[in-house]
Amino acid sequence: MTLASFRYARVLSIAGSDSGGGAGIQADLKTFQALGCYGMTAITALTAQNTLGVSGIHGVPPDFLKAQIRAVVEDIGVDAVKLGMLHAPEVVEVVAWAIDHYRLPNVVLDPVMVATSGDRLIAKETVQVLVRELFPRAVVVTPNLDEAALLIGRPIDGVDALDDAASELLALGARAVLLKGGHLPGDDVVDLLAEADGERLRLSSRRIASRNLHGTGCTLSSAIASHLALGYALPEAVERARGYVVAAMAAGADVQVGAGHGPLNHGFAPVPMVRLPRTGA
């Protein structure tokens, strides 16, 4: 049998399932596919969820999470990882083990703590373990303002406060932080990428009037992971990912899905699967 000359850019989502399809691994897989990557999953938890909120969470046993990761990594391989809902300390510890054991590259940590509906998705005792174990292992951490405020212990009340908040998050051990300012008032949305080496990049766009914002954070972190898997450096991966999310929001703004916060239009302009030269792994 002739050895294939090409492979796909492979992105693994280790996250929770959203039964409503707008966030979690469902949004991740849609994003990977839309950006030309091959998506895989290791599910941390099942949620009973729709556009109105979360009505139940069922955690996956840590040993079975480890089995999912092992099955994917040892056969298919991974070029980037998106981390989403990690609801318990033992789940975080499995993920940290996997990153080290398999030397998983390009880890993007979206510290999912609160859903768009306001439902809390992570146990309080998990936060400290998440920071200690995963902040140093991720190439970038992508909190929204509510998550960042929970992490640093104080609210972030304006665009001018983003720099100091990002510095505090870096001080927790992160190598880079993308602090998302979408929850701040104003006609423009300003995000800040801060790296531990001192580099700062502000990204701004006009606010899109839409109720369909469910899964925005999941989609952004998945898009960053996708672009890292395709070979882009972090700043360009973030810029490209942000552009994709803004366009997906605009494309889904006038569509109604459910009675609450609907999803983005992930498939507004899909990219064919990217074929990369196969060199070893």
Helix content: 25-40%
Radius of gyration, CA atoms, in whole angstroms: 18 Å
- Give average pLDDT, whole number: 94
The first-to-last residue Cα distance is 18 Å
- Beta content comes to 15-25%
Structural class designation: alpha/beta
Note the total helix count.
Answer: 8
Explain how this protein is built.
The chain is built from eight helices and eleven strands. It is α/β, with parallel strands linked by helices and 281 residues long. The strands form three sheets. A six-stranded mixed sheet has the order 4-3-2-5-6-7, sandwiched between helices. A three-stranded antiparallel sheet has the order 8-9-10. Helix 4 links the parallel strand 6 (107-109) and strand 7. Helix 1 packs across helix 7 (216-229) and helix 3 runs parallel beside helix 4. The longest helix is centred in the C-terminal third of the chain and has 19 residues, at 234-252. The model has no long low-confidence stretch (mean pLDDT 94). This is hydroxymethylpyrimidine kinase. GO terms for molecular function: kinase activity.
